[in-house]
Design a protein that fits this description.
Elements (H helix, E strand, L loop, with lengths): L4 H4 L8 E4 L6 H31 L6 H18 L2 H9 L4 E3 H34 L4 H4 L2 H26 L9 E2 L6 H5 L7 H34 L4 H29 L8 H25 L2 H18 L1
Helix pairs in contact: 2-3, 2-4, 2-11, 2-12, 3-5, 3-11, 5-7, 5-9, 5-10, 7-9, 9-10, 10-11
Length: 319
């Protein structure tokens, strides 16, 4: 039997534990969801770990594009691990709760990885812009030092935003109810449980979403606008095909990630519904992370070759 909010609440002024809303009251449906999400989670972890390992162990892939791709894979691993294990536990456990401190920790890491990915995707678009629009200066301008700085800045922005948003939200009191109408400690569902006026917190969440989602997305659009203009004037059809091929995987990942994120965090509050928010969250926390390694490996011959070499070496080592 699930622990009730009253069992978790003491005589202090603020709720100390939260409960996640159940996906379904039917045990069969919970088991089916558990199985599907577990399979996607394992596929995501395996695919992203293999891509990061293949890039790190193959010297031919030690280029800016693959350096950013390895960072993206590491972010995806952290992104899914911050949310999915607790959700799987909630699906199969009678006690579906999380402490206030645990909830704050989950929110911090989720925000860190999500915001870092937004910034890293913009850095990857800038890299493609430099490679296609300034090929003669690409090697000197996109140095290892610059690539490392862009990656560090992406992670640092995520860390700062995660700390700021988490501290700002959990400085509030939560008087009840203590059930989160979601499957993890996302910002809007937690704010809905806070006491008193939360308009400033909601405005802060929206401003950060605009700055950290819209701004990188505009940089990506600007980069690909310049790339498209450069590709259209290329005299060689083979050159145009190769240029578009190197960008298509990144564009598809950007569309999946930013599409679901923008609908979740930038649409008006009045249009939010718990069911839609949960489906969108499942998409950008589980499905997108699983699809990214598939997209990059299927559409990139160098990544596919590196993955096969890595798997072959592992097989030989075990043999």
């Amino acid at each position: 039997m699930n622990l009730s909010c009253s069992q978790w609440q003491d005589n202090s002024e603020s709720v100390k534990h939260f409960a996640f809303a159940k996906f379904s009251a039917a045990a069969e449906q919970c088991l089916l969801l558990f199985t599907l999400i577990l399979l996607m989670f394992l596929a995501s972890l395996t695919g992203n770990a293999l891509i990061a390992l293949a890039i790190c162990t193959n010297p031919t892939l030690h280029t800016p594009m693959y350096f950013f791709l390895a960072n993206l894979s590491l972010l995806e691993i952290g992104y899914t691990c911050s949310v999915i294990p607790k959700m799987l536990q909630s699906l199969m456990s009678e006690a579906q709760g999380i402490s206030r401190e645990g909830c704050a920790t989950q929110m911090f890491f989720f925000t860190l990885f999500a915001i870092s990915e937004c910034c890293l995707l913009a850095a990857m678009a800038f890299d493609r812009y430099m490679a296609i629009c300034s090929p003669l200066h690409y090697a000197t301008r996109m140095s290892r030092g610059l690539c490392a700085q862009l990656a560090v800045v992406s992670w640092a922005v995520g860390c700062v935003v995660g700390l700021g948003q988490t501290n700002y939200i959990f400085s509030l009191n939560f008087c009840g109810p203590c059930e989160i109408d979601h499957f993890f400690c996302d910002l809007p569902p937690i704010l809905a449980l806070a006491c008193g006026d939360t308009s400033r917190n909601e405005a802060a969440v929206f401003v950060v979403a605009v700055l950290c989602i819209s701004s990188p997305f505009l940089l990506i659009i600007a980069s690909y606008g310049r790339i498209l203009a450069a590709v259209l004037i290329m005299p060689s059809p083979e050159g145009r095909r190769k240029a578009l091929s190197t960008c298509s995987s990144h564009l598809l990942v950007v569309t999946l990630f930013y599409g679901s994120g923008s609908v979740t965090y930038l649409r008006p509050k009045a249009s939010h519904s718990p069911g839609t928010d949960k489906l969108l969250a499942l998409f950008y926390t589980v499905v997108t992370s699983m699809l990214n390694p598939i997209i990059y490996s299927l559409r990139n011959k160098e990544v596919k070759a590196a993955l096969w070499r890595t798997l072959w070496k592992k097989a030989l080592t075990r043999g």
